[in-house]
Amino acid sequence: MMDLPPLPVPVACVRSAAGYYGLPPLAIVGILGAEGGRLGQAVRNTDGSEDLGPMQINSRWLPRLARYGLTRSKLLMNPCANVWAGAWILARSYARDGDVWMAIGHYHSGRPGESRKYRLRVSRILSKWLEREGIDRGGEADGR
């Protein structure tokens, strides 16, 4: 198994969440890289919502995530809870879309143009990391 790049969360959290939801760990890694969030970070959006923690979970998800015991505070301060919430959001899109790249785009936005830009951003982040590591991407990080 390849090592993952330095992350703002424990690698074990990424691997366990990805395994549980049947997601490629690099999908989560790419989103973490694109979001650039940090533990304890809350970013206010123009619509009044907030993006929380490492995976920048939008606060609009809080009512749904509350069913699983996830609160704003947990998403901000617990790196594994944040990754698992992000993986849950990504997995919902993956189940609907049937394509991990479409799901990555929809993690960010349901609007086609914004979704495509985000997929390309994640693809570039992963491609740069794979290139630095000397790993042949084999079309895996193409961001369709």
Approximate helicity band: 55-70%
Low-confidence stretches: none
The coarse overall form would be globular
**Protein structure class:** mainly alpha
Backbone CA Rg = 14 Å
> Sheet bearing the most strands, described?
3 strands, antiparallel
Order of strands across the main sheet? 1-2-3
> What letter string, H or E per element, gives the SSE order?
HHEEEHHHHH
User: End-to-end distance, in Å?
Assistant: 25 Å
Give the rounded overall mean pLDDT.
90
Number of helices, counting only DSSP H or I runs of 4 residues or more: 7
Strand coverage percent: 5-15%
Protein name: Putative conjugal transfer protein
InterPro entries: Lysozyme-like_dom_sf, Transglycosylase_SLT_dom_1
Domain Transglycosylase SLT: 13-112
List its traits:
single chain, 144 residues, mainly alpha, 3-stranded antiparallel beta sheet, 6% strand, globular, Putative conjugal transfer protein, Transglycosylase_SLT_dom_1, Lysozyme-like_dom_sf
Structure characterization notes:
With 144 residues, the chain is mainly alpha-helical. The protein has one domain. The protein is 58% helix and 6% strand. The chain is built from seven helices and three strands. The protein has a three-stranded antiparallel sheet. Strand 2 and strand 3 form a beta hairpin. Helix 1 packs parallel to helix 5, helix 5 crosses helix 6 and helix 6 packs across helix 7. The longest helix has 22 residues. The mean pLDDT is 90. This is Putative conjugal transfer protein.
